[in-house]
Amino acid sequence: MKNSIILASIALSFFSCKAPKIVETDTSKIEESKTAVATESVTQVSNRKMVPAVTFSKAKDVGNIITFLASDDLKGREAGSEGIEKAADYIEAIFKKNNIKPYFDSYKDTISNFDKPAYNVVGVLEGNDAKLKNEVVIVGAHYDHIGLISPEGGDAIANGANDNASGTTTVLEMARYFASTKSNKRTIIFALFTAEEKGLLGSKDLAQRLKEDDIDLYTMLNFEMVGVALQDKDYFMYVTGYENSNMAEVANDYSGEKLIGFLESAKKMNLFKRSDNYAFHIAFNVPSQTFCTFDFTNFDHYHKVGDEPELMDFEHMATVVNKSIPMVSGIVNAATKEIKYN
Q1: Among 26, 76, 170, 279, which has the minimal tally of Cβ within 10 Å of its Cβ?
Q2: What's the confidence (pLDDT) of residue 47?
Q3: How far apart are CA 185 and CA 258, in angstroms?
């Protein structure tokens, strides 16, 4: 996995198994900042105040969700399959249970750019501030995977636990938190995307729909492959497009720690363009980035049948949720739009 040739070949499919079918735009105007995120106290970096840490999600909470989403019964959640339909029903039930309303007429929103019936599952939690609720933060992840593949040891189900039942679980747990606290001043759209593995089709469709709705999108926070911990890093997660914006700086200020760092291989492989954040960057040109703890060296089952839920670190996943909540809380409640492209 550490061999540069192998990494380059994997990059062609990460995070999507096909090249994104999205019209390219000129991103050269986004300067690459060379300033590293400061590691000093947040009071020395900015006027942002650290948001208190939470202990909300527990290992059993994330374990219950990812164990269902990555179970053999769902047959790898390929877009348009019966298995992913079960996953969509499950996500919808969680939204209903937590009184998160459907953004559209129903939670399941059929995408228009795929040849089989396939759905994004989209919920919304209105902000509690009379003015800021007109601004939107999207918290998203793709919930599809690649389905059935060539058997290994008699197993043909690519369960997709890390990719990306882990990100889906993170979004669902954060939705549960904000629904229970009703602490968000801005409106949050919780979006679970289909057909990411077909070329970012679900996120592309939703981005276009929301653009037509003329929403005031502040930022898009995407979670991808967070089921296992990074090793030998001085930060907890990395963000794609790190140098494109001050996202990491803002996140670290609110977290009160070096939560987000820079992964050199993510830059070399241009992972910024390879997950669902990219569709919102294209449509809205607002900071839209992906948080991840998979670095090509800490998990050997990418797009393989071995991507099973029992290999996930549930304690780590709960920590992803709990460490992300202060970051997201600070972003959705800030008086101004602090995250900017450089």
Answers
A1: 26
A2: 84
A3: 25
- The pTM of this model reads 0.89
The domain total for the chain is: 1
Residues 44-81 have pLDDT tens digits of: 347 899 999 999 999 999 999 999 999 999 999 999 99
Q: Which two tokens stand for residue 176?
A: 């549960």
Q: What is the pLDDT of residue 338?
A: 98
Q: Is the dihedral of CA 228, 232, 234, 239 positive or negative?
A: negative
Identity of the amino acid at 120: N
Tokens of 315: 């304690």
DSSP label at residue 104: S
3-class DSSP assignment, residue 187: strand
What pLDDT shows up at residue 7? 46
Domain enclosing residue 218, as ranges:
51-333
Residues near 224 by beta carbon (within 8 Å), at least 6 away in sequence: 15, 141, 142, 163, 164, 167, 275, 276, 290, 291, 292, 294
CATH number for the domain spanning 55: value is 3.40.630.10
CA distances from 229 to 5, 89, 226, 238 (A): 24, 29, 7, 11
186 burial via Cβ count (<10 Å: 0-12, 13-18, 19+): buried
- 279, part of any domain: yes
